[in-house]
Each structure stands twice: as structure tokens, then as C-alpha cells.
Write a structure and sequence with these properties.
Blueprint (H helix, E strand, L loop, with lengths): L1 H36 L12 H70 L15 H11 L1
Helix pairs in contact: 1-2
């Protein structure tokens, strides 16, 4: 179980690293487009040309894509780790339940054996238990243990 968790954690870490690299690459791309794509730096945003407005919209879209990819990767990691923990808890609960069922079966078998022995006259409830077994008691014992 631990190795599966370690593999999952490693894959999640790799996904976050890839998302961070993608964010950095998009940031560099946006920086290049913005600073080198604009021919002149206008004083007010209303003085931008259509090409400059298009570049700014592309940059905004790329930044939104980067943010969504990073958040999506982080959520994926969190949900996978949570799912793995829930699966482990369920396995532990199933194991405990099976042990409890086995104990119940064993308990009922012991009770049944004790009832049969008591019905055959073999019991410790007497103040002086019989010292010798008669034929009926011997047959009862043979039936129980066969």
C-alpha cells in the first residue's frame, strides 16, 4: 500500500512540476509578446491599436489557461491522495469486518458444541461431575468429534 501511495505521490508531484514549468513558459511568452510586440508605449489604455489590444487579449487568455492548469493539477493531486486514503480505510474496515464475522462463526460453533455436550450429560455444572462415562456419553463424544 505504501509503494502505491509513493507512486501516486510521485506522479502528482510530476504533474505539479509540469504545470509550474508550463506557467513559467507561458509567462515568458507573454512577457516577450507584450514587451516586444508593442511598438510604442501609449500613456493611456484607450490609445492602443487593434493589434495591441489583440496581443493583450492573447496574453490574458494564456495567463488564464496557465492558472486553470495549475489549479487543476493541484486539485487532481489532492483528490487522488484523498481517494487513496479512503481506499486504504475501506480495506482496513473490510478486514476488521471479516475478522469479526469469523469470530462470530467460531463463537456459534463453540456454543453449539457446548450445548451438545451438556445435552449428552457432559457438563461442569454439577458439584461432583461423573467420573466414568457410560456408553451413551461415549457415543455422543464420538459423534461430536467425527
Amino acid at each position: 500500500m505504501t509503494s502505491r501511495f509513493n507512486k501516486l505521490w510521485g506522479a502528482a508531484t510530476a504533474a505539479v512540476i509540469v504545470a509550474a514549468i508550463a506557467l513559467i513558459a507561458i509567462g515568458i511568452l507573454v512577457h516577450r509578446i507584450y514587451w516586444f510586440g508593442l511598438e510604442s508605449r501609449p500613456a493611456a489604455p484607450t490609445q492602443l491599436s487593434q493589434q495591441q489590444v489583440a496581443l493583450l487579449e492573447i496574453m490574458k487568455s494564456l495567463l488564464q489557461l496557465a492558472v486553470v492548469s495549475v489549479i487543476g493539477s493541484a486539485l487532481t493531486v489532492i483528490l487522488r491522495v484523498r481517494e487513496e486514503r479512503n481506499e486504504k480505510r475501506k480495506q482496513v474496515q473490510d478486514f476488521r469486518h471479516s475478522i469479526l464475522e469469523q469470530l462470530g462463526v467460531i463463537y456459534r460453533e463453540v456454543k453449539k458444541s457446548r450445548r451438545i455436550l451438556r445435552a449428552a450429560g457432559l457438563t461442569t455444572k454439577f458439584s461432583s461431575p461423573p467420573s466414568l462415562f457410560d456408553d451413551q456419553q461415549k457415543n455422543s463424544i464420538r459423534i461430536i468429534w467425527s
